[in-house]
Design a protein that fits this description.
heterodimer, A: about 110 residues, mainly beta, B: mainly beta, 5-stranded antiparallel β-sheet
């Protein structure tokens, strides 16, 4: 079955450590996204990538970094510069059909910084 | 950037009841989607509906793009409908792919 796999599902880290969250998709989608969700709030866009080797900052990119070396993979690194990294992180992918851009989401990664 | 407001923020329903969720947006859009987030955090796309009306089982949605709002209707609600419903939009003035989410409507359906 095609889908998006995020790992790990839960992650605990000490303050000041960098953390990398994995996102892999086998849907053959061109575009991939990272969103952050805080309790009781909507999703905020961190980074997105329309094609391999290209990505754009979203609304809250500070303290995060990404790479897109393969179509299937879009890892997110939460750096020590991110002031409040504890959150639920969601990866998504999409492929435009006649202009539509419908997102498919992974199950999410919950990061807790101690 | 575009503003997205959802109402009501919370909704408690008895099983079998009908409800309407609203999404207002501040600018012209070329993309509007409704999502359901289950209690475990998984987001599922319900509708892609930048304009017009669509139905899928007990759910239906209507977007009036000229008046900048969309409505999601839940009929004969079931406990499995519980969760958070999000509206997400992409402004025509934004770069491709920048979907902005509202704060969501938390729905609880009681037996």
């Amino acid at each position: 079955d095609g889908g998006i796999t995020q790992s790990p599902k839960y992650l605990f880290r000490k303050e000041g450590q960098n953390v990398t969250l994995s996102c892999e998709q086998n849907l053959n989608h061109d575009a991939m996204y990272w969103y952050r969700q805080d309790p009781g709030q909507g999703l905020r866009l961190i980074y997105y990538s329309q094609i391999v080797n290209d990505f754009q900052k979203g609304d809250i990119a500070e303290g995060y970094s990404v790479s897109r070396e393969k179509k299937e993979s879009f890892p997110l690194t939460v750096t020590s510069a991110q002031k409040n990294p504890t959150a639920f992180y969601l990866c998504a992918s999409s492929i435009p059909r006649s202009g539509a851009n419908v997102l498919t989401f992974g199950a999410g990664s919950r990061l807790t910084v101690l | 950037g575009i503003q997205v407001e959802q109402s009501p923020p919370d909704l408690i329903l008895q099983e079998g009841a009908n409800s309407t969720l609203r999404c207002n947006f501040s600018d012209s859009v070329n993309n509007l989607q409704w999502f359901h987030q289950n209690p475990w955090g998984q987001l599922i796309n319900l509708f892609y509906i930048p304009s017009g009306t669509k139905q899928n089982g007990r759910l239906s949605a209507t977007t009036v793009a000229t008046e900048r709002y969309s409505l999601l209707y839940i009929s004969s609600s079931q406990t499995t409908d519980s969760g958070v419903y999000f509206c997400a939009v992409e402004a025509t003035t934004d770069s491709w792919g920048k979907l902005q989410f509202g704060a969501g409507t938390q729905v609880v359906v009681t037996p």
